[in-house]
Design brief:
15 helices, binds alpha-D-glucopyranose
Length: 599
Amino acid sequence: MPNPSVPVPRPVPSAWWADAVVYQIYPRSFADGNGDGMGDLRGVLQRLPYLEKLGVDAVWLSPFYKSPQADGGYDVADYRQVDPLFGTLADFDAMLQEAHHRGLKVIVDLVPNHTSDEHTWFQAALRATPGSPERERYIFRDGKDEVPGSGDGRLAPNNWKSIFGGPAWTRLTNADGSPGQWYLHLFDTRQPDLNWENPEVQEEMRSVLRFWLDRGADGFRVDVAHGLVKEAGLPDWDGAAAMVEGTTGPRRESHVPGDAPHAHTDAEEPHRAVSPMYPPSPFFDQDGVHEIYRDWNRVLAEYGGDRMMVAEAWVEPAERLARYVRPDEMQQAFNFDFLLAGWDAGRMADAINASLAAAASVGAPCTWVLSNHDTVRHSTRFGLKDPTTFPKGIGAGDEQPDAALGLARARAATLVALALPGSAYLYQGEELGLPEHTTLPDAARQDPTFFRTQGAEIGRDGCRVPLPWAQGEPGFGFSGGDSGQAPWLPQPDSFGPLAADQQDGEEGSTLELYRAALAFRSARHLGRGTVEWTDEHAPDSGLLAFRNGDVIVLSNLGFASAPVPNGYTVALSSGPEPASDRAAMREVPVDCTVYLLED
Ligand code: GLC
């Protein structure tokens, strides 16, 4: 019998998703088709030619379902309806049909951990009595007594904290005004957690899957996939105190070009950061979640075999994440180790090695992701003094990034990600090199984390700002012409020159770099390849160098330029130099990645 503790590498499937480049659309902010200042499905439809030209294989849409928008749509009131903000089911169908016509797959977001408080189930639970079937769909409990034996139930059932700040429990008031039971919400008060022990909940979510599969969705991005099952008895947990506060990475010198190397001193305020990875806890990464994904795997299999699921699971180490992508569970999981590595050669190489090994052990493709709607954009993170830091939002009072440095590194990091085998996820706007909006006025903020932490966490609005399509138009063309309606979040002036119309066809622009990199990746089948570190690989000196097929990827995260190996020519570079100069390049500058081909 094979030793079960030694994983046998399994072959990666040949399905479309195994090497797909997926473009994340945050519908509120991608494109506004009806001129109300809010992005919508018609806007997505209109911009499909842009995505086809960019060269991606699929789109993933963050939630567009009926929702009071207490958490940007991750608070779903009806899983089978499109919110009027975004259009109608017919708009979804038209968008999906056109996407398929253009060869683009469509992945929709599934939010199974919690519903909105406006969901009919939760409304029924509020009206129902303790112990009723309506309350059994959620996690209602009596409170603990403040005065022992008094039955006052004044204390929350346990000490869990909401991921967004504040307590994870809210107490109800009964119809007669008396205090009632408490309900669990790992996120906002308006996002009550579902009870995944309840067969009715399980059946409902199967039915939601089938609803979107029947409409033609090619897959699901599964929100908070590590959170659905809670440890029996809901025990207290003091682990939050162990979570990393302060900088997430080691202190390192910054190397602003033209600047003397500058070391952090303790007198300087480090960027406040909280790791989104939790140590083992009673509410995340419980073994019971895997049974749910085996069940869903069987539902997807009813549809012919190439539908997929990708897990949003902030778990570590990579071996724990690999459990979500075993052959009978999901197809992919976001690789947050890679995202959290930051701009640091050693950490990046470690994340690449660990994730490739863990994914290979279960026969799943790796994924590579640098930005999404929950993280400060990588073009901004990499422009901070410590480019491995992971702040939860950046405000005007915080350290401001070096935008040019951040963008150079972001472009270089993207070329690394796109040359790795597996699937890559891009977040809307990164192909324009958009920075985080780091000076949003507080009055414009919408993210519940900002309010639940009384502003201690700035939140995620800065990466959710509507895209600039045309520099000369109001709202930089987000709403297509002068609708008179300003975009729902204000755009920074820096977005103007980065608008899509300014970069289209412009040699050296970030948009053209992404187009070229995606075409190169596709032509050389890099997503189906392997990683073999080459002689030039020296993470201690800031150099990443690997071979994938006939391409050598050399990324310079160090302090001095690095020679191009003899016998090789630069085919693509993340730097600003004109393509005509590339063949003559014999040095890879700092903060640059090149793709090399043999002469
Ligand atoms: C996921 C989403 C995030 C949302 C949270 C609660 O982490 O990506 O945007 O706030 O789940 O649904």
